[in-house]
Design a protein that fits this description.
This protein is of the alpha/beta class. The chain is about 35% helix and about 15% strand. It contains nine helices and seven strands; from the N terminus they run ββααββαβαααααββα. The strands form two sheets. A five-stranded mixed β-sheet has the order 1-5-3-4-2. The protein is elongated, with a radius of gyration of 36 Å. About 5% of the residues have low confidence.
Length: about 220
C-alpha cells in the first residue's frame, strides 16, 4: 500500500545507492533536455499533482526518491519547498523498488510520425520536452540527378558497372557515328544494356580497344 503526502524537500534525498538492493539512479538528461523539463514544470505545475514522486522511508523521517529524481532536482532549483509524494510501504522488497525505478525510466510505445507531423504542433511538443530526429541535410546532387529525365539528360547516365574497373564514356548522338565506332573498334564483345534515364549504354573492355589500335599501328600504311 502507498500513502500520498505533501513532503518538505528538506526530508527528501536523491537515490545515491543508500538503500540495500536499490542501485544508484542511472537516469540523466543532457542540459537542453533538463532545461526543457524545468520549463515544462514552470508552465504546468499542476502536473506534479498528477504524477507525484515515489519515495521510500529510511532512517528517521527521511525518504529516498525511487522515481522522480530529476523532477526533484528541477523542482528544488525552481524554489519548491514541498512536493506531492507517494510513500511506499516499508516492507516493499528491494526487487520491487528496482522494478519501479526501472519502469519509471522506460518509455513504452512509439509516436506515429504522420500524426505528429500533420495533427500536432511540433514547436509545442519540443517545448514540452519531446525530441525529434535531426533532419538530414538535403543532397543537392541527388535531387538534381533524380530530376533528370530522357528529355533533359545532357550526358548518358551510366549505372555503376563494377567498382573494380575504371569507366570511360564516349558519347554518340547519332546512329551513323555509333555504327562507325562499332566498326572501327571491332566491338564484337560489346555489352549493351538500358539505363533508367537514356535509351542504351554500351560497354567495351579496354583490352579490345587496345588490340584494335595496336593492329592499326602494325598494318602497312597505304601509299
Amino acid at each position: 500500500m502507498t500513502e500520498r503526502k505533501l513532503l518538505p524537500v528538506t526530508l527528501l534525498d536523491f537515490n545515491k545507492g543508500q538503500l540495500q538492493g536499490l542501485p544508484k539512479n542511472p537516469r540523466f538528461f543532457r542540459d537542453y533536455r533538463y532545461e526543457a523539463m524545468k520549463k515544462s514544470i514552470q508552465d504546468s505545475p499542476e502536473m506534479l499533482e498528477l504524477r507525484e514522486l515515489i519515495v521510500y522511508p529510511y532512517l528517521k523521517g527521511r525518504y529516498v526518491i525511487v522515481c522522480g529524481n530529476l523532477r526533484f532536482r528541477a523542482c528544488r532549483e525552481l524554489g519548491y519547498t514541498e512536493l506531492p509524494c507517494k510513500i511506499l510501504d516499508e516492507n516493499t522488497p528491494p526487487k520491487k523498488l528496482r522494478e519501479y525505478a526501472s519502469k519509471d525510466n522506460v518509455s513504452f510505445g512509439e509516436n506515429d510520425p504522420d500524426i505528429i507531423e500533420n495533427e500536432w504542433d511540433k514547436s509545442e511538443l519540443q517545448d514540452w520536452g519531446m525530441e525529434f530526429a535531426t533532419e538530414k541535410p538535403k543532397d543537392a546532387f541527388r535531387k538534381r540527378f533524380e530530376s533528370i529525365d530522357d528529355d533533359s539528360a545532357i550526358y548518358p547516365l551510366v549505372p555503376k558497372y563494377d567498382e573494380k574497373h575504371e569507366l570511360f564514356i564516349i558519347q554518340s548522338s547519332n546512329e551513323v557515328d555509333s555504327n562507325w565506332l562499332r566498326e572501327r573498334l571491332n566491338m564484337q564483345h560489346m555489352k549493351s544494356y538500358k539505363t533508367g534515364k537514356v535509351s542504351k549504354s554500351n560497354v567495351i573492355d579496354v583490352k579490345d580497344i587496345r588490340h584494335v589500335l595496336e593492329d592499326s599501328y602494325t598494318k602497312p600504311q597505304k601509299a
